[in-house]
Give the backbone structure.
Amino acid sequence: MAALLAALFALAALPAGAQVRWYERLEEGVAVRNATRKPALVFFYNGVARDCQRMREETFAAPGLQELMDNFVCFELDARAHAALVERYGIFKVPTVLFLDPRGTEVDRAVGFKPPDVFSLYLDRTNRASLGGAPRTESTQDAATRRHIERLAEIQPFKTATVNILQPRPGTLAITLSHKAPAASELSVVGDFNDWRIGATPMQRAVNGDWYVTINVSEDVYEYKYVDDAGEYHEDLRNPLKKPNPYGTSNSVLVIGNPMTSPLILGDSVTFIVYRPNAREVAVAGSFNDWQPTPMFRKRDNPALWGFRCNLPAGTYQYKYVIDGEWIVDPENYHVHTDAGGNVNSLLAVR
């Protein structure tokens, strides 16, 4: 793997007429990286995360972004198939996009779904630090490469956030978060909205001892936590929404606006939606149908999405999805309930 990575990020001149494209395997990009000084864009995904599909269809394919991406060699890597790279770069969720310099050193990262206007800021920042139009002749290659690396070093990760969520931007909403941590001398919030950069979004202590910060974010779903001066992570105890993370704990979940999550509830109408592009059979079972799996159907315009709609009287219900025989909780519903048998089920309420 080390030799492959060394070859992957080797430097040389770019052949005339070469075009940026997605490489699904590291080996496919070796020849290109052997012949270019372009920075690399590495998109880590998995096949069951709807936000990964959104990155492909809403962000990467957006008009105008291709021009910004022309300065990168782009890789699309299944996180589950590249465990060594995932561990090396500390990837803990998908989608995550890494921006790497010619030596394979990370200079920036985007965690979670980023809409086109926000993702363009990441591309522009790395592009502005790159060689741009500098000539790539053999005689200037070494000096140009050094200048390139020096410029990229100015935006090393976790020093400054690409997007300053403390400042209002068009299309954002102001949300105030607060947390009680009397023993902390410093506290910051980290999450998908600031790419989990510790210290990027510091909180202030109020007169009553609580810590607070007002962030500006667009409509979407964000995972987050609080980090104190000792490096300890804390869930938001004032927010009941949470999602398990790879470390055996949970992240708090912030739902802003009315993004499409599952289930969609409008009056007594309940629509279950789950993203499973490679599933053969998907069903939903719960207390509303005596836990008898009811088949779900693929959307005509997006066969990766399965759906089922029904009308339910006011009340609280537990449910799970049955995907090719496997029972799972709803990955996009952050309300759960543990029943008397120790089973964790998704929870929905019809008002």
The chain has seven helices and 23 strands. The chain has three domains: 2-153, 173-256, 264-350. Residues 116-129 form the longest helix (14 residues). Confidence is low (pLDDT under 50) at residues 1-19, 131-141.
